[in-house]
């Protein structure tokens, strides 16, 4: 049973009361924007409902006259005029940006911009302070330039390639529709034309498998059933007829019997319709118009900005201090150069590259599991997701109708009822709908073969919308047999008896009441119920509706879109890993409650289910509280779906939304990570961040784990580098104030950062502790600052001990011995900075309880070897370093051992105090 309490849904770290955001001003603005968007859409849909209401109830002749059309179709002149007036029958879609714009957008990263700025300043410095004979070297500029280009190039290529893969999912076959138009001689001709060429007033012919090309009014139907799930979220098809008795408003527009809408499809039957609205004037178009434009920032985007601002704040304090102290105690030129490299040292230069490498590797791994990542940042959001909102149809269910029960009049499973229902479905000559196919599937080949051998079709009375039943008359046995299947009330109207223990008994009012209770119980479980009745026939071949009388009720057929076998285990797995599942569906309350109960989602507790009408009555504060404890939202419209997602985000959650219909597009766009499938409508695929090639929650389980692993390796780099750089810069401040020379050669600082960062390129291949993968992980700027000021000073303690060692033991206490001092600190600083990788990457004891992956071990080991060798090499000495005496290295070993022990001790205390490490 799902625990839907706010406590369960609260993400790790500082929590917020319901309705209170971590960035309340931003969330208030987001909710206000959503409210305005909702109001605009409701106004547009109300306008559309008013127009379609007229079309729904107006007699066909008057509607055709109003549209300037007729059953013979439009002539070519009218078509041309209307194409010019209304444009192509297309809706607004977000178009992919050209490659050059995608490349420029890859530069829009705070760390990339900082590095670009520092590269420009460094270039100007190289020019101004260049040696007149040798000229500017631009070594630092080249180093920073390579970092920027590699990072930007990797991000651009991965997102460009992912975008191409997503576009490839689009159908390459042009969709057409059958339209009747007049030829040059005024004769009506029906032919296939591209859907984009349809105009208002066109007469369209529809058959099973066709997509409805625009918003239409049906003029003629024959057993026409339409799948409107992409708009409504309902799993069962809707029957359509040329007339509707209900009053049409914005709230019930989609349920009008005589109307069809763009994007829906014909399941069975046939029909003729006149086009009322096309393109952006359709219901689909009204929705998609609200989704164009810039996407809202996700938690990943906000997290990167917060980390960037935090590090910039440190830079704004530290760099001027270093510059002033060195300028006042040494010369201002050296102070400026050293201040500049201090800024570089405090910036995690490789963060864009490390992030991109992690995300790119995650995208490649996920692609092997039939997952296409359109936007790289979505991988991290998937790992941070603590609430998954999903539609019901096709995700929790099989997206197919099955015969769940075949019951006699007592509610007991009856093989006789199944056999008679199979005979009815088997021998009808019209197009079989989904319910007929479900009956035949349930019967199986043995029963169907038996039916073929036992009966022969004499006649049938086809289904129509007025009587809502159909009858076949079969010859077999001693006398012909009439078998009628249809809506419960309509079948009961022609029954005079019920079959009890093989014998007919009168259908009394008391027995009718008992049957009503039985049907109500089936409906309460979300099932669609049909009744089945039989009557003896006579030897003739001209049966009619008048013959449907004095029948005997055999029982009932209950249909349901069944839950997927994997749904319950997938939901339980998500819950174990800290991700609560909430179902948001356009289907009715009874169906939603039944399916959710079957997959283990609590729906019976007070407040566990909300309907769209109830949501509409709540203000933002009330909804903020309600969404925490509600597990199922039923009969909701598209904007209500988006509002639920946004309110969960305002409560501090990272929200994923999984859907594939037109009615899901707004929520997909609003979510931190939108998840769709390759078979979804275009607008849903465009709005999604991740596309699944298999619509199954089990696929998401691996994706979430990969997202958390990716985020873990990203946060490792940030915490390692930020704390190490913070400690180094604190050491620089002390050294700048006390030493009579620059504590480190500027170009060596850049080289040290480059070597360290190159070793960090192995992090995307590092392992992550299982405990870290067990719950959602989020950006925490406050936690990062706390980590920096706790762990950073540890390195400063041993930097200062190294200063003392070089000053007092090795006599590097004057400007002419500066190179010896700088060489000693370089080795200790780079090796300790690299060793700290293994201390920080896990909350456990490194090398004993948790060992890094081989790429990390090899590259960090190579960095340590480089630090030891460089001062002894010609290259290192050309940079200003000098060889160290061998007596230095025992001191170094003692320093590093003490450093690791102290860090491990502080780690234990930190975890005990704050409950987490990374």
Automatic annotation (TrEMBL):
SUPFAM superfamilies: Calcium ATPase, transduction domain A (SSF81653), Calcium ATPase, transmembrane domain M (SSF81665), HAD-like (SSF56784). Keywords: ATP-binding, Cell inner membrane, Cell membrane, Magnesium, Membrane, Nucleotide-binding, Phosphoprotein, Translocase, Transmembrane, Transmembrane helix. It is a multi-pass membrane protein. Pfam families: Cation_ATPase (PF13246), Cation_ATPase_C (PF00689), Cation_ATPase_N (PF00690), E1-E2_ATPase (PF00122). The keyword 4Fe-4S does not apply. This is Magnesium-transporting ATPase, P-type 1. Its main location: membrane. The chain crosses the membrane at residues 111-130, 136-157, 310-329, 335-360, 784-810, 852-876, 888-910. Gene3D superfamilies: Calcium-transporting ATPase, cytoplasmic domain N, Calcium-transporting ATPase, cytoplasmic transduction domain A, Calcium-transporting ATPase, transmembrane domain, HAD superfamily/HAD-like. Belongs to the cation transport ATPase (P-type) (TC 3.A.3) family. Type IIIB subfamily. Residues 1-39 are annotated as: Disordered. Its EC number is 7.2.2.14. The keyword rRNA-binding does not apply. Mediates magnesium influx to the cytosol. It catalyses: Mg(2+)(out) + ATP + H2O = Mg(2+)(in) + ADP + phosphate + H(+); ATP + H2O = ADP + phosphate + H(+). InterPro entries: ATPase_P-typ_cation-transptr_C, ATPase_P-typ_cation-transptr_N, ATPase_P-typ_cyto_dom_N, ATPase_P-typ_P_site, ATPase_P-typ_TM_dom_sf, ATPase_P-typ_transduc_dom_A_sf, ATPase_P-type_domA, HAD-like_sf. Residues 54-127 form the Cation-transporting P-type ATPase N-terminal domain. It is found in: Cell inner membrane.
